[in-house]
Design a protein that fits this description.
0% helix
Length: 99
């Protein structure tokens, strides 16, 4: 619920977290490839990112990496879906939906 943080992604990889009060980067979530998808979970506990064939879950309060998954294809979009319990949904260049 902190309204002072903004995130940005570039083709160089990583997610930069900015403090809008100071205009400075306060943290970077490291990725190997450019990020194609980023979202905050509905409960606000996790930040989900997709970069290349990797899906990552970050703690939304402390910005530490919680879990990383290697997927069988390049992932274009990912979402943590509470209705499926501990599962996430990813779609990629292979044109399949992965649960």
């Amino acid at each position: 619920s902190d309204q002072t943080i903004l995130s940005s992604c570039t083709d160089m990889g990583g997610v930069r977290l900015w403090d809008v009060r100071t205009g400075k980067i306060v943290q970077t979530l490291d990725t190997k490839s450019s990020v194609t998808s980023s979202e905050v979970s509905q409960d606000g506990r996790y930040i989900t990112t997709a970069d290349g064939s990797t899906v990552k879950f970050w703690d939304a309060n402390y910005f530490g990496l919680v879990k990383s998954y290697n997927m069988p294809c390049t992932v274009e979009s990912v979402s943590l879906e509470p209705k499926f319990g501990n599962k996430f949904i990813a779609g990629g260049e292979d044109m399949w939906v992965h649960v």
